[in-house]
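Minutes, structural biology subgroup

Action item carried over from last meeting: produce the structure token record for 4-oxalocrotonate decarboxylase (Bacillus thuringiensis subsp. finitimus). EB confirmed the sequence was re-checked against the source entry. Recorded below for completeness.
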Amino acid sequence: MALVKGADLEIVEYLLQAEKGRKEVVKVTDKHPDLTVEDAYKLQKCLIEQKMSEGSKRVGVKLGLTSKAKQQMMGINEAIYGYLLDDMLAFEWEPLQYETLIHPKVEPEIAFLIGDDLQGTNVTAEDVLKATKYVAPALEVIDSRYLNFKFTLPDVIADNCSSSKFLLGSKWIDVKDIDLANIGMVMSKNGKVATTGTGAAVLGHPAEAIAWAVNKLGLQNEGFKKGDIVLSGALSEAVAFKAGDSITAQFDDLGSVAMFCE
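Output recorded by EB:
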């Protein structure tokens, strides 16, 4: 569908107010059932532009639905992407405030620091690795604005792929020194193993997922800039958390990243 003029601004404001007010809202597609994925990316772009007009700065890109199992569950055959802003960055030494969130979950990811501009529609995983300066362990906090964390594909894209916060580990490794596909990961909650995964869970190799994102952005004449942070996708399912919970993700050869919520 082509969004009715004015509806895009109304939807963006609806999602922004849900986030600012920390309240769950019904899905956008409940009111706009014909919303397409293309429409949703336009809404996402408007939402990010609005946040940037209020002072936020773009610092990178995040990927979602990068596991084949998740894609099959959603009935799709490709990943999705959203944007990272500077005010989403959280720190290991600074507790997350649960009262600033709605119903958060956390995912273990591998973060890429892009060392050279990367743009095009024919970019390969090898190109991504050549353009990557370092990789690091990461945690992404997702916090859908939708009721009960339930949504369709256009809904989640419009909501910037449920983005909320992200944390980066202090250890950054040269990408040439690590086998990202075979890296193992264990994520613990309050000292007990919650999930396990490997780099191969991310479209076979995290760099493959990032190549997909570059090529997708290339269709919009966009790409990655030197210094961008890219979250390549979850190595396991997300884990819900609440005030008082601590989360640690330990990665083979890559170190760990931890967070505490109060």
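Discussion: The first helix runs from residue 7 to 21.
Next step: EB to file the record with the rest of the batch.
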